């Protein structure tokens, strides 16, 4: 006799294996709030302290594709270094990416990456969309 037991949980093995990554700046309140939300909701993630481990040019290009953004849209335009060195300059996309590689503080945060998609997670709704 074979017993058929219905599954009680909808487990997607692919979804379960994908670990979320968070580009995090510990000095940023929005970034700390993002991590707190993930921890409170028991969502597993890997923290990337991008100021200590700056992304490469190729990693920023990949991030931009996942975010579906232009390089300029990813820049924190109120940062002192942007205002002093880049604002009102004729910059190409490559120039902007290079500025972020050389000065990772210019990268908007926090960024959540999961399953080939990414979002800037400055509010709960953005976190919930990808988590």
From TrEMBL:
<comment type="similarity">
    <text>Belongs to the ArsC family.</text>
</comment>
<keyword id="KW-0560">Oxidoreductase</keyword>
<dbReference type="GO" id="GO:0008794">
    <property type="term" value="F:arsenate reductase (glutaredoxin) activity"/>
</dbReference>
<dbReference type="InterPro" id="IPR006660">
    <property type="entry name" value="Arsenate_reductase-like"/>
</dbReference>
<dbReference type="Pfam" id="PF03960">
    <property type="entry name" value="ArsC"/>
</dbReference>
<dbReference type="InterPro" id="IPR006659">
    <property type="entry name" value="Arsenate_reductase"/>
</dbReference>
<dbReference type="InterPro" id="IPR036249">
    <property type="entry name" value="Thioredoxin-like_sf"/>
</dbReference>
<protein>
    <submittedName>
        <fullName>Arsenate reductase (Glutaredoxin)</fullName>
        <ecNumber>1.20.4.1</ecNumber>
    </submittedName>
</protein>
């Amino acid at each position: 006799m074979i017993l058929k037991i219905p599954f009680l949980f909808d487990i997607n093995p692919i979804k379960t294996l994908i670990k979320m990554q968070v580009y995090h700046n510990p000095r940023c309140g929005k970034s700390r709030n993002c991590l707190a939300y993930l921890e409170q909701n028991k969502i597993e993630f890997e923290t990337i302290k991008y100021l200590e481990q700056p992304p490469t040019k190729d990693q920023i290009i990949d991030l931009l594709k996942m975010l579906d953004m232009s390089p300029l849209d990813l820049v924190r335009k109120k940062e002192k270094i942007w205002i002093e060195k880049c604002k009102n300059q004729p910059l190409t996309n490559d120039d902007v990416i290079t500025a972020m590689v050389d000065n990772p503080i210019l990268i908007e945060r926090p960024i959540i990456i999961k399953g080939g998609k990414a979002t800037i997670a400055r509010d709960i709704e953005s976190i919930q969309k990808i988590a």
